[in-house]
Amino acid sequence: MLKGFCQKYRPQPKKVEKNRWGSKLLAGMKPNQKKKGTSPGQLKLFWDELDITNEEIIKAATIFVKANCYTPNPKNK
Known about the structure:
By secondary structure, the protein is mostly helical. It is built from three helices and no strands. The longest helix is centred in the last third of the chain and has 15 residues, at 54-68.
């Protein structure tokens, strides 16, 4: 009985799966629909309220770099 079944058995062809790696990749890259909000009682950071211009930052940064420089450049004093 099993011998006849094995001789007559023809396996059905398997379905060819399409490569869908791109759709899986893009599924994980969806933009966040919901933006994170702040809690009602949460305090803001102090530097959000400061009004500092770029000139002030550049001036302070150059003074800081010159003060902490190991071998200062004599041309830029």
